[in-house]
Amino acid sequence: MRKPSAFEMSRRNLLIGTATSVAIGAASRSAQAQNSATGSAADAEEPPAMATVSFNVNGEIRALKLDTRTTLLDALREHLHLTGTKKGCDHGQCGACTVIVGGQRINSCLTLAVMHEGDSVTTIEGLGTPEHMHPMQTAFVKHDGFQCGYCTPGQICSAVAVLDEIKAGIPSHVTGDLNAVPQLTNDELRERMSGNICRCGAYSNIAEAITEVAGRPA
Fold first, then answer.
1. Angle at the Cα of 20 from the Cα atoms of 15 and 21, rounded to 5 degrees
2. Quick one: pLDDT at residue 218?
3. 193: number of CA atoms within 13 Å, CB side?
4. For residue range 114-153, what is the model confidence (pLDDT) as tens digits?
5. Is the dihedral of CA 8, 11, 12, 17 positive or negative?
6. Side-chain-side CA neighbours of residue 73 (13 Å)
7. How many Å is the maximal CA-CA distance in the chain?
8. Which residue, 39, 103, 105, 135, is most buried by CB atoms nearer than 10 A?
9. Phi and psi dihedrals of 191, rounded to 5?
10. Distance between CA atoms of 118 and 126, rounded to whole angstroms?
């Protein structure tokens, strides 16, 4: 009978080796899972970075202690309960969250609250009240510049800022002569308001409201 070579493996040794490998692999995966769980628990226990921000909102100084990742939109809605400003796409594409900061309109979903220390912020609540409406609010009601109303606060804040931009001589992408004072033409109006989407399609009524406030015939 031929004697087995040192390099040959019996069935018994093969089974023993396979079982040993499986056991080692299982122990390794268990250790990795335990370490991962421990790391996740440690990460979960780590508190978020907090900061205090103070700004003037609708004529009132407000101070908030916030997670530094909090957007201006969430600070207004969730912390100051100024829910007139709407969260639409939350990606800066619809304009529903438009507010006026330092005289300029911005998408509040795209900026962090802590970036506005000391700034002056005007929301739809700061423009007017039902008893004392801003002229732009009155014009929107008169010309039926809204249907569902979800985009309306952003539309109105943007419209107010648009007229101020034109008065200040700030050109747009369709301004023909950059050295001339821009005029509120139909092209200028639609270009400047293009960042505010109305899914109901009340654009013509919105344009009529803005042109009336600007002192031009609708």
1. 100
2. 46
3. 30
4. 999 999 999 999 999 999 999 999 999 999 999 999 999 9
5. positive
6. 20
7. 113
8. 105
9. -65, -45
10. 17
The lowest-confidence range among 20-29, 78-87, 209-218 is 20-29
Residue 75's nearest CA partner among 64, 84, 86 is 64
pLDDT of residue 6: 52
DSSP strand pairing (98-101 vs 104-107): antiparallel
Collapsed DSSP state (helix, strand, coil) of residue 206: helix
The structure tokens 């008065």 sit at: 167
Secondary structure (3-state) at 50 = strand
* Amino acid symbol at 69: R
Tell me the average pLDDT of the chain. Answer: 89
Task: Give tens-digit pLDDT for 30-63.
Answer: 767 676 666 655 556 788 999 999 999 999 999 9
Q: Which amino acid is at 209?
A: A
Report d(CA 126, CA 111) in Å as an integer.
Answer: 20
Note the helical H segments in the chain: 11-45, 72-74, 124-127, 135-142, 152-167, 186-192, 203-213
- 167 to each of 128, 140, 161, 182, how far by Cα in Å? 21, 21, 10, 8
| DSSP SS3 for 145 | coil
Q: Please, are residues 54 and 62 in contact by the beta-carbon 8 Å criterion? A: yes
What's the rounded Cα separation, in Å, for the pair 122 and 55?
11
Query: What CA–CA distance (Å, rounded) separates 178 from 171?
Result: 6
